[in-house]
Amino acid sequence: MTRIVTVGAAQLGPIARNETRSQAVRRMVDLMRQAKAKSCDVVVFPELALTTFFPRWFMSDQAEVDAYFEREMPGPETRPLFEAAVDLGIGFYLGYAELVEEGERTRRFNTSIIVDKAGKIVGKYRKIHLPGHHEHEPWRAFQHLEKRYFEPGDLGFGVWRAFGGIVGMALCNDRRWPETYRVLGLKGVELMMLGYNTPLHYPPVPEHDHLQAFHNHIVMQAGAYQNGTWIVAVAKAGREEGCDLLGQSCIIAPTGEIVAMCSTIGDELIVADCDLDRCKEIKDNVFRFDYYRQPEHYRLIVETKGVVPCP
Ligand code: CDV
Question: Which of 113, 160, 195, 250 could covalently link to 261 via disulfide, CB atoms 3.0 to 4.6 Å apart?
């Protein structure tokens, strides 16, 4: 029996600061309907898909920041996504800002979930690699205050049995770090889902702006190949509040090949039939971990955070 999962990458175009969650959700439900027409089992939406990318603004009023966060999932405005999942028989991955009250403590995470075809949340991930900075830096053309508005995820890199395979999640900046893929690879991941918001302009190193698309794909193609997994990577793209965001959402095979890619920077669905058994071509051969890995020589990876000085 083949294990083919038909996956839709549901790229979103920009979401304005004054757009409501309900407006964004309507666009997403429309993409789910398109996905149904193309026989998708699951669709992947971007990181922080319900609102504009709010970490680009410094806000000193915490209540203003918290207005971008979800206190329940589903809530009244996001419930239509869950209802569409049930009606259409399609699962989804969704990125959103999560606020949780734990006793006296309010915690805020950059979160993603996997919802199955029955509309049930089967997995949750909280972004571990938070990019950007803590303080207001007015010299930048725009801020990137993820380090201020979120705390690092506390759930690790998880995998779940869903859609007939082993599914893992990551969010945006996580895709640049080989550790993300390797931990998921060591958990047997076959289908990795991730959403991103990547500005074309990177204020600290603007000389790399023209390489954004290249860097996006090189890290994910390597991660897919080196761990024998499918990757579905989905952008919020286009000019959002004056900030240009990278598109080129894509679906990558375990061989590292891009099998589908968006060609616009707006709302767009691309689809691929992902044969999960193709992961074995890599996992049982060139990267057969249990036969070839030499973990005794990798200890530094977990023993140090920064570079160890050369003696
Ligand atoms: N949302 C992100 O994590 N964005 C980062 C940018 C700031 C570099 C990214 O890695 O794409």
Answer: 250
Return the ligand 1 atom nearest residue 216 CA.
Answer: 11
Question: Does the annotation mark 64 as catalytic?
Answer: no
Alpha carbon of 131 to ligand 1 centroid (Å): 6
Ligand 1: residue whose CA is nearest its atom 1? 197
pTM for this structure? 0.98
Burial environment of residue 104 by CB neighbours within 10 A (0 to 12, 13 to 18, 19 or more) = exposed
Provide the pLDDT for residue 2: 78
- Beta-carbon contacts of residue 255 (< 8 Å; ≥ 6 apart): 224, 225, 278, 281, 282
Q: What is the DSSP string of 207-222?
A: GGGGGHHHHHHHHHHH
> Looking at the DSSP assignment, which residues form a beta bridge with residue 4?
275
What digits encode the pLDDT tens for the residues 53-63?
999 999 999 99
Residues 75-98 have pLDDT tens digits of 999 999 999 999 999 999 999 999
E-state strands within 131-241: 159-162, 165-171, 191-196, 230-235, 238-240
Ligand 1 centroid distance, CA of 216 (Å) = 10
Asked if residue 126 lies in contact with residue 173, where contact means CB atoms within 8 angstroms, the answer is no
Which of the listed residues 56, 137, 144, 200 should we mutate to test ligand 1's pocket, taking the one with most ligand atoms within 8 A of CB? Answer: 144
With a cut of 50, which residues of the chain have pLDDT below it?
none
